[in-house]
Amino acid sequence: xxxxARLVLMSDLHDCHIDWYGxxxxxxxxxxxxxxxxxxxxxxVDHIMMLGDYSLDFWQWDVKGSWLREGVSNxxxxxxxxxxxxxxxxxxxxxxxxxxxEALFYEMTGCHRRASLSVGGAAFILADSFGRDLDPRExxxxxxxPMDVAWIRAEMERYPGKRVFLCAHFFDLERxxxxxxxxxxxxxxxxxxxxxxxHRCDVVPLGPxxxxxxxxxxxxxxYSHATGHPGNGFWxxxxxxxxxxxxxxxxxxxxxxxxxxxxxxHHAAGRQDAFTWRF
Length: 279
Description:
The chain is of the alpha/beta class. It has a single domain, classed as Metallo-dependent phosphatases (Purple Acid Phosphatase, chain A, domain 2), CATH 3.60.21. The chain is built from six helices and 14 strands. The strands form three sheets. A six-stranded mixed beta sheet has the order 3-2-1-10-11-14, with no helix packed on it. Strands 4-5-6-7-9-8 form a six-stranded mixed beta sheet, covered by helices on one side. The two termini are about 15 Å apart.
């Protein structure tokens, strides 16, 4: 298979004050770096799309988030301590736990809250789906912002003739406008949507309102919301391989050892939840 580009999509990494599956956060983040670098050595990656939740900086539960409580930004810590060591160019957009305004988010990450770029002959439009009520003075889980259809259309015009993947931390379809549904349904150049937030890695076929296009979930490197045993959607990232005639995506999980429900668990390396596009 001739490849024009290989991309990785990551989300819900959560460098924060909570440990999961018996692994301290710092160790979990170090595993992310070392395991991704091993993956990228074997399968060179052109670009990483990071779709949010690098932290719990504005978390409203229990001990609360670190930013308003003690002025500590785990978003900044993640970028400086881990993201910059991945060895691959990346673009970051915020999730619902990074409620920094545009200026502060850019200062911390070097990225804007929304972006677009072209890689391997396809265009990627990364929308800000939690761009309301920014820089809050109280702890918050974020306020959902429906898609800015005019902005998406304007960004698409920058990449004439290219297939388009829409990416966001989350697409809350129950809160989305008919204008957005119509855009996805009627614009043939839009071939799929990628989202994080759910901590799941399955591919959801959207109904007729969205033209039956796939909503691809990017998994997590924190805690799983997969159906059944957490190992069904364990730590990993989405790979997207572009070819001259289409694309294929899998959820990739590196091998890991941890503790689940008091028992030692070994997760073997593997791929799951595939989807193929034919252009």
